[in-house]
Every structure is written in structure tokens, then in C-alpha cells.
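Anyone else keep sequences and C-alpha cells together like this?

Example one:
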Amino acid sequence: MGKYQSVIDYISYFKNVTEEEACYWGGGDKRDDGIFTISYPVYDKQLTSFIEEVTKTDLLDSNYISTLEKYGLPMTMSDEIMRVIHTSNEELTKAILTAYIRQERFNEGLWATAVKDKVFYKLLIRLQQLEDKL
């Protein structure tokens, strides 16, 4: 059993889950006083469990912005980042995973996009490949 097995165990979840299954939007309702509430993502329990599991490991890179810059990648989630996942080393894989997890705070719904685009799935596959090399 590898160092990150508890996280890698989510591969089948991310392979099969749809964006609609992983997230719905709450709020956005008109209150009795005529004011509208702001909508917000409500994530599936398994997705939030995955995020919690990642935070229990050393997969989060506290310097992920610098790490992405080191590899010439933008801090914004982009196609460029998606293209390098399958060849990323452990340092870059951690930085990309961290960026997706932390940026949800500034870009609500990013995790749903990551599910739709299979980003978490691809990162976990890559992490498994890296562990298998050890």
C-alpha cells in the first residue's frame, strides 16, 4: 500500500462521477423581503471527503504558486495545466492538485469544473503512476 493510497482510492469515484452528481447550486432564491441570495456550490459528500483526505497527507504544496511559476505554468486553471498532468513529476502534481483545491475559495464551482474535466481523476492516475515507480 502506497503513501497516498487513501487518496488514490478515489480514482473510481472520479472516473465515474458526473458534474451534476458531484455538485448542485444552492441559494439564488428570492427571500420574502425581495432580496435575492447568492448562489453557492453544494458538493457531494464523497467529493468533500476526498478534499479532506488530501489535507491529511503531505500532498498540499504551501508554495504551489511558486512551484507553478517554476515550471512556467499560469496560476489560473487552464488547458496548459491540463496538458502537463500526464507527464508531471511529484512536485508539479502536488502543486496542481493544491491549486485546484485552494482556488475553490476564490472561484466557487472550480471543483465541479475539475470533476467535469476529469482533472482530479487525471491527477490521481498520475499520482498512482508516480507511486508505482517507487
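And example two:
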Amino acid sequence: MKEIKINTEFIKLDQLMKFANLVQSGGEAKGLIAQELVLVNGEICTQRGKKIRPGDQVEFDGEVVCVK
């Protein structure tokens, strides 16, 4: 599990995926989210702009990112 610290109230899902190096670009994140390949707190998420807050977990391709 990788921990990512943010200094704001939230980060959007596609931005987090790029920030955590899960994807190379926002466009790649958008496509993967649309294909229902990304889990937020254990549930499939299709909203690329979903607000991810501290305590949330994002999972993609076997990697888990926990936001602190």
C-alpha cells in the first residue's frame, strides 16, 4: 500500500492517479475510470472528478493508494 499525503481538503480521482504515478496522464486515467477499472473504497468508480479525501483508498491494477 502506498500512502499519498495531500495538503488540501480533497483531490480529484484522475489527478490523484497521476500524482501517485498510477498513470502517465490525465487522459489515461479518464479512460481507465470509464472502463470501470478503478476502485474507490472497494467500489467501482466511474467519476473521474470524484473528490478523494484523506482516509479514502484508491485501487488500480493491484496497487492500493491511501490518502493521508
